[in-house]
Design goal:
Elements lengths: L1 H14 L12 H4 L3 H19 L6 E9 L8 E10 L5 H34 L3 H6 L21
Antiparallel strand pairs: 1-2
Helix pairs in contact: 1-3
Length: about 160
């Protein structure tokens, strides 16, 4: 369960920096101001892309082998096996690094959000009440099963 939660945290974190047709994409170079932070980000991006999602690097391996019978048996091979091995990434240093990266990204996003809110507030304050009341309100439509195939904001 710990590993599932750990991998989910990595996937959800890196998702914020990925391509999307429906939302803003974070830029790691804008969010992080040190080489150490960028290198840590790259580690988690590669871990997500090359191990957790696509299984392309050495962190997960499956090694075939043969179990030999003792000499003199009618068959030399008792069984063919596969050894499934996964490298451990949930360790304190990695946990701390992911926590710091997420915290720093959240601070950056909050700062950008606050700046945009100030701009929007200034623009709206300049409008008369009659124009503000005429603006479209917030509406929410719950997702339906057929929505799983489409983007929120298709191009």
């Amino acid at each position: 369960m710990r590993n599932v939660l750990w991998e989910t945290a990595i996937v959800r974190f890196i998702k914020c920096f990925g391509q999307s047709e429906a939302r803003f994409r974070l830029d790691p170079k804008a969010s992080y101001d040190s080489d150490a932070a960028l290198n840590s980000y790259k580690f988690f991006a590669s871990l997500r892309n090359k191990n957790i999602i696509h299984d392309e690097n050495s962190y997960t391996q499956c090694m075939p082998g043969a179990v030999l019978n003792k000499d003199g048996m009618s068959h030399k091979i008792a069984k063919i096996i596969c050894l499934d091995v996964s490298g451990t990434t949930l360790e304190q240093d990695n946990y701390n690094n992911l926590h710091l990266l997420a915290t720093d990204a959240q601070k950056w996003v909050s700062g950008q959000f606050d700046k945009l809110c100030d701009i929007i507030t200034s623009e709206l304050e300049a409008k008369p009440y009659v124009e503000l009341f005429a603006m479209e309100g917030i509406t929410y439509t719950a997702p339906a099963a057929d929505g799983v195939h489409t983007s929120r904001n298709p191009k």
